[in-house]
Amino acid sequence: MLVANRNNGERLSLGDRWDKKELIEIRSKEKFHCPVCKEEVILKLGSKKIWHFSHLAGGMCEYEYDRESEYHLSGKLQLYSWLKKQGIHVELEKFDPQIRQKPDITFQLKGQKYALEFQCSAIPEPLFVKRTKVYLENGYIPIWIAAANLIKRTRRNVVSVSNFLYLFLRRPHHTWNIPAFCPISRQFINLHGVFPISSQKTLTYLEVQPIHQISLNQLLSPAEKQFPIIKAWQAENQRLKSQYVLYPGARQNPFLQELYHNRLSLLTLPSEIGLPVFSSPYIETPSFIWQSFLYLDVFRHYKKGDLVKYARVLDSFNKRMKRGEIKLRNLPLAGQRDYLYPLAEYILLLTKVSFLSRINSGTVKVNREIIFPSTIEEQIKAEEEFLRKHQSKITEALFK
Ligand SMILES: [Zn+2]
Fold this sequence. Notes:
This protein has 11 helices and 17 strands. The chain is of the alpha+beta class. The chain has 3 domains: 3-55, no CATH class; 70-220, Trna Endonuclease, Chain: A, domain 1, CATH 3.40.1350; 230-398, no CATH class.
């Protein structure tokens, strides 16, 4: 905690410039109290740790469980002075009694209230969702910034994003973004664009910027960053499919069993199955799985020239979801469970790659047969060719 109440009820913020002697003097004369629970707190002025207030042991304060690390305190202070330097009227740990919450930082910009949270520890998802909801309902725009150490980079443009980190995913304009900050290197780390491969692994553009090189405006509305996605998408999907087939429990995997019973193999699926769409973060299940289900339930029952009702596609998806075969993601900052978007985008993409053509808003026509490769080598070659041919259309749909 960086702010406590003094005897006279005024706030003492350690985010302001203080002389150590002055603070020792105040501490010797009066007691400090937690602005939330009103219990006494101790001012710690050690030389190794950041100065802070601490509840007495055994306190019942609801903010005490969230024991703040040095990393958190330091990040909070840096973000606070970063905003202050930009001439923004900003307050540290201001308790809002109306909502009984104490955002790390609050500020106003053009009449709009913002609540900034620098979140270092993984709090339970319902708590994250509840806090976000309370902010929104009370006129705050929440800005959740993740601790950079929650981001695990695997390869170039491939990052591991945990379920917790997905809660930070937001959709400013037509782009996906996760903002993070590292108080040790004093850098913002931004994930621009999120195109999930599996439940955890995603393709993204990871941008690192020193704190003094970025403005609040850039944080609030980050510009879209395009990056070459097609080759990485194919390589990562191949990798994931091979892992699926090779892992010891593969024989019991219901999805692989269903493919097998339909005389299909994961490694020789046609190129139309497993395509990236912009809104895919709403679906936790990998693209090649939910798109395979649509093929099995819907498209394989139609021949060239047949009409397909979109309602049937939707119906298949809903049934699979109810059975738990397709899982959605909770994205509190990006609208709740809007799985209709990825679904509609996928059908639209299938019209762009000439498999379907649009008849009207609820109907498409099958234009051609889907070709199933007979060997893995054939599949890889066909997919390469397919992606090369349709690269610009697929990419256009992912970036705007
Ligand atoms: Zn307290």
